[in-house]
Amino acid sequence: MTACRKMICGLAGLAALAASAGTPVLTVPETAQPPAIDGRVEPGEWRDALEITGFQLANGQGRAKEETRVFLKYDRDHLYVAAIASDGNTKILNRGGAYDDCIEIFVMTPFNRNIYHWLLYSRGTAGLNYVDEEYGGMDRQPPVAAACKATVNDGSWMVEAALPAAGYDLTGIFRSPGWKISCHRSFNHNQTAKEDGRGPEFSGFAPIPGQFQKPLEFPELKLGGKGTIPVRMTKFSEREFRIAASPAAELRMTVDGGKAVSVPNRNGVFESAVPAGTRTLELLLTDGAEVVFANRWNFPADPAPARRELREKQMATRGLGISAAGSFERIFSDLPYFGDRREFSLEAARNEFENFQLVLFTGRDAVDGITVEASELRSGKGGVIPAAAFRISREGSATALPVGYPTVRGAGDYPDPLFPLTGKLSLKPGEVRPLWISLKVPMEAAPGNYTGSIRVADGSGRTETVAVKLEVYPFAIPKKHSLKTAFSIWETSLRRRFFPDEETMDVAKFTALVDRYAMMLVEHRLTPIIFGVPALLPKRVVDTSGQSFEMQPDGSCEVKAEVYDALNKKYLEAGAAGFCTGPYLWHFMTEDHEVPAEWPAVWRAVNRHYAENGMAKHAFAYPVDEPGNGLNDKVRKMTGVIRENAPDLKILVTGVNANFPSRLVDNIDCWVPALHWTNLKRKAEEQAAGREVWQYPCSGPWYPWPNYHLDTDASAWRAVAWVTAKEKFDGILYWATAIFNPDDPFVNNANGVNGDGVLQYPAGDGSPLASIRLKVICDGMEDYEYMVLLKNAVAEAKKQKRSPEAVAEAEELLKLDSVFRTMDDYSRSEDDYRNFRRRAAELIGRLGR
Q1: Rounded distance, CA 737 to CA 417, Å?
Q2: pLDDT given at position 136
Q3: Partners of residue 738 on adjacent β-strands
Q4: Listed residue (221, 106, 114, 110) closest to 176, CA to CA
Q5: Pairwise CA distance, residues 258 & 256, whole Å
Q6: I need a labelling partner for 385 at 20 to 30 A (CA). Which of 187, 275, 350, 837 fits?
Q7: DSSP sequence for 704-769
Q8: How many whole angstroms from its chain centre is CA 449?
């Protein structure tokens, strides 16, 4: 998959603050003196412009380290933009390709119709992205070229641009209110550290959690007439600020949501210190009765004091400390920990996983010979769930590299890979060791309330227990997955690390290993795509274990896929929702992407093969990945060949950074746009016409939108299934689950996103290790099953004309608002997800009576 365009967003706290504060406002004055666009920001040319600084990091961690000053003014023909961007090493500008080292200006038309996204590069060029009213993006050249020049100095670079009004909606800026504007800076967009070690920074003036994802929170754009005294913010930091404005203006400052106080106006200059320890600062500038400038800044708290306090509690622990914790909590082995929770309550249907954590920690004592065992669970009615239903794993770490999107703790080690717990454990003084506990409720378990425990003993003979309570509901999560998914394994990393010699590799052993990864996905309610990228595997592997298409002398084709078909039948029987078939990902295409002459025969053979063996109803063709708008004609020809010759197969095509689903491509049965680039209007049209629209996370979107990133909040992983339900997508595709770094499988930063494409890690012998993310993703898939079960119960109750009150309550719950409201407004509390299941289970019971 190609890298997605990363979106700027904010932390959970940031999102909550955004909802409570007023809209930022920027007033751009009209000028009688157009600037000379020469890349030199002369003070005299921009004295009549709005000036802003104090850009904030998109990851919610305060102000950007590299300062940015932006100037804005307009006349009837242009919006004029200038910027001075500090840079500690201007010798290495623009090494990262598109979107690197640029100022981004977003202009949104009234009534949310369109967004024009201008990129002003330090190399002196301007680009334009057009985003339509449904926020489906389409790159295009400006209809009228923008004058843009830049100069590079020692320690900073400058850019100036005149954005033309003619030829696009900006002409309307002079006629109507309701416009919005947003200013950002992209520094090292490739999401990895620059050559000199500086990490990426994505910053903006207003704290907008989502950029394209939350365009309605762009600052309001107001226009001042000629002679307007511009607002000029010339200084801003966590300690102080300085703003120049009209001598008649009034400025009010609010600290941490408290009472607003006036800042003295000294002949049009406002200067003030910011109180120490401020977490949020809001400034509101008025000129008479009208707001002319407003913004909010968020300053992160220093975690050191809280960690010191926690370390003191931990170090006061005598012997071995133990505590239970929920599945959303991130337990870092290199940070202090203290807890004393000795009981954990669970609720589950049959055939459902429940997860929690057991944290072992020490104070000043070393502890050896630690064993951890689960007991069987027993109910008062004689029911027994064997101890083997528990799986206890040791949490390992994966390393996150510096990135610019919101993370839990920045770069460093994050708990994720799960290793089998074997033998005894030892803890050094001050050590923290989290364990992951998974309970799979057997399909045959009798409903009722069960009790048991997790027993922890050490070498001294001391024994502690954590009580486990479980309520088993009187229904089961179905074996067959209700939510359609397609999760590629991308076996190339497995082959490169464990079977490096292509000529001598044991294909049977390799296939058996891939099968173990695939079955792990099925067990966690995900449908695997195996041998899905033949171009990256030795031909004899594909010929033996995948699908081969052999042309015959008479021009027909023969499909050979014995092993492949047997594996996919196995996954379908175990619950998978489908499988991929046919020439895939351009690997059958010539260099210029023309449809090969043999394709009609190949697809006729594929269709016949799966129609005859009864698997066609589960099959989908995935012939091209993210083809881009420039290949629409080629894709139309390709899908036309498939439709004509393989009418029994569904055709699936992914798309990113494009207006997807597109009106420019035919014959698509399953559209798969990236979540944050889905054209919602087109999605509804395609679904109304009987076609499916899936979604997929790939690099983006950023938190707080749902995603599978290693270093984000755990709620984001579980919420991917919820956004699928809430926005009525038909499935989820994920580009890879085991495309780990072959040299170091626990450091993965594909496309500048930590953990992207890696939900499964390899043990030393290549065996698959599940991840914490995979476990929480599975919880989300099970949430989806509860939704389906409840919908079915409502439909049956309506059919039988019973339980009208329960039907009304269930329909209200199925709005999902108790947990998931919008793309970046959903619960971060595991309790809310569990409460949804409890309520759904209770209603399923009532509706069935």
Answers
A1: 13
A2: 56
A3: 758
A4: 110
A5: 6
A6: 837
A7: TS----TTS-HHHHHHHHHHHHHTT--EEEES-SB---SS-TTB--GGG-TTTTBSEEE-TTS-EE
A8: 37
- DSSP 8-state code for residue 63: B
Pull the structure tokens for residue 593. 């992407």
Cα gap 472→848, rounded to integer Å: 17
The whole-angstrom separation of Cα 131 and Cα 117 is 8
pLDDT digit string (tens) for 219-275? 999 989 888 999 999 999 999 999 999 999 999 999 999 999 999 999 999 999 999
Length of the chain: 849
Q: For 267, left (φ over 0), alpha (ψ -120 to 50), or beta?
A: left
- DSSP 3-state assignment of 518? helix
Amino acid at 292: V
For the chain, residues with pLDDT lower than 50 are 1-21, 139, 211, 587-590
Are the C-beta atoms of residues 159 and 124 closer than 8 Å to each other? yes
Backbone phi, then psi, for 69, in 5-degree steps?
-120, 130
Q: How far apart are CA 483 and CA 423, in angstroms?
A: 38
Whether 559 contacts 609, CB under 8 Å = yes
Quick count: other Cβ atoms within 10 Å of Cβ 318?
A: 9
The pLDDT assigned to 393 comes to 98
3-state secondary structure 598-661: CHHHHHHHHHHHHHHCCCHHHEEECCCCCCCHHHHHHHHHHHHHHHHHCCCCEEEEEECCCCEC
**Sign of the torsion angle spanned by Cα atoms 839, 840, 841, 843:** positive
